[in-house]
């Protein structure tokens, strides 16, 4: 994210990186009016959509990594709930209307300031077309998933774990980060 050149509050051009009094992080501050410019993580919401033992994946048409497969997910918009964002992204990327059944995973990627929220969902209906961000969308049996062509290692881990848990009928809620490649179970 590009830092502003002018203060969004007063329009002044005297912006400097400093740690505000009582804060723990360096922030962009306006010397003229005292405005503090916060840069916060982006939230990505999506779903593991299941239908008759198959799992919905979309094939990316856009950077990064066009041609790879992923769970349908994307950036949350202002004014949306995480559930609304997840369902909207599923629709936009795959033409699938889904119904959320439960939260499944929350993980952070601090080096790129992103937080991923993934829900369990079931397929309600599927349109004949999908959005331009996807080259294709398919429902895969577990053995047919293009595992070596999954966009992001954490997405692969989430999907592998979900499929194992579905087989046992016991699901967890997971939190963690990609820094150490570890996700923590939360009861």
TrEMBL record:
Its cofactor is Mg(2+). It comes from the Bacteria. One of its GO terms (molecular function) is hydrolase activity. Pfam families: NUDIX (PF00293), Zn_ribbon_Nudix (PF14803). CDD domains: NUDIX_Hydrolase. Residues 40-162 form the Nudix hydrolase domain. SUPFAM superfamilies: Nudix. Keywords: Hydrolase, Magnesium. The keyword Hydrolase applies. The keyword Metal-binding does not apply. Belongs to the Nudix hydrolase family. PANTHER family: NUDIX HYDROLASE 23, NUDIX HYDROLASE 23, CHLOROPLASTIC. This is NUDIX hydrolase.
């Amino acid at each position: 994210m590009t830092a502003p050149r002018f203060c969004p509050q007063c329009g002044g051009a005297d912006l400097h990186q400093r740690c505000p009094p009582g804060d723990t992080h360096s922030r962009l501050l306006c010397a003229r009016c005292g405005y503090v410019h916060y840069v916060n993580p982006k939230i990505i919401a999506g779903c593991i959509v299941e239908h008759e033992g198959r799992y919905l994946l979309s094939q990316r048409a856009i950077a990064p990594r066009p041609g790879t497969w992923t769970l349908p997910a994307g950036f949350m918009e202002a004014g949306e709930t995480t559930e609304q964002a997840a369902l909207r992204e599923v629709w936009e990327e795959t033409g699938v209307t889904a119904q959320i059944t439960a939260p499944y995973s929350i993980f952070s990627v601090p080096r790129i300031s992103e937080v991923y929220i993934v829900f369990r969902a079931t397929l309600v209906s599927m349109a004949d077309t999908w959005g331009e961000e996807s080259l294709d969308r398919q429902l895969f049996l577990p053995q047919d998933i293009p595992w070596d062509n999954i966009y992001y290692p954490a997405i692969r881990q989430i999907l592998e774990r979900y499929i194992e848990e579905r087989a046992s009928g016991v699901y967890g809620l997971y939190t963690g980060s990609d820094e150490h490649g570890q996700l923590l179970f939360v009861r």
